[in-house]
Amino acid sequence: MRLRLWYELAQAKYSAIYVCNLIGRQRSILNLFNLIITIFSTAGIMGWKFWNDLPIVSCIIIAIISLTKLIQPHLIPSDKQIEKLDKIADFYYDFYLRLEKIWFDYENDRLSEVDMLEQFQVLKQTEREINRLVNEIHKSPNKKLAKLSEIECDNFFKKAFNTINHE
């Protein structure tokens, strides 16, 4: 059970790091998208003087922007989705801290194995609700973010616990 607790501790930290990295990426994408839409907004683009000679180009740009706005919810994260990711990040941060407390209490003989198992099971039940939210928002992992998060997580455990594979 000790190894299971260690695995869950590492997984919780990884999840917290991954979600924070994902939030940063999603916010950057949303901000860039909003900036581009603002620059090429349909209200202002027709006023640009050089479009007088190229009306078809301005129409194409307006059509692309309008189409992009329509499909935005499927391509670009919304503020609502980012808020849900914030809730997930908060959950995993708290979840990690509670797991870490159980780990330290068990390692320092302040908890018996039975008590540790009981606290662990109670804590794992809290994860059920957040998993629904994760499944609703996050359909497939980003491999680049996953690798970056794994490296950050490994570095954290090397520094905090002087190891990455606690045995």
How would you characterize this protein structure?
Helix content is about 80%, strand content about 0%. It is mainly α and about 170 residues long. Helix 1 (about 1-40) packs antiparallel against helix 4, helix 4 runs antiparallel to helix 5 (about 115-125) and helix 4 packs antiparallel against helix 6. The model has no long low-confidence stretch (mean pLDDT about 85).
Low-confidence stretches: none
**Secondary-structure element order, N to C:** HHHHHHH
Rg result: 23 Å
Main β-sheet, in a few words?
none
Number of strands: 0
Distance between the termini: 12 Å
| Residues in helix, % | over 70%
Overall 3D form: elongated
Summarize model confidence as the mean pLDDT.
Answer: 86
Work out the strand percent: under 5%
Q: Label the structural class.
A: mainly alpha
Query: How many DSSP H or I helices?
Result: 7
Record the SSE blueprint.
Elements: H1 2-39, H2 42-45, H3 55-75, H4 79-107, H5 113-125, H6 127-137, H7 143-161
Helix pairs in contact: 1-4, 1-7, 4-5, 4-6
Report a brief summary of the structure:
The protein has 167 residues and is mainly alpha-helical.
Features:
167 residues, mainly alpha, 81% helix, 0% strand, elongated
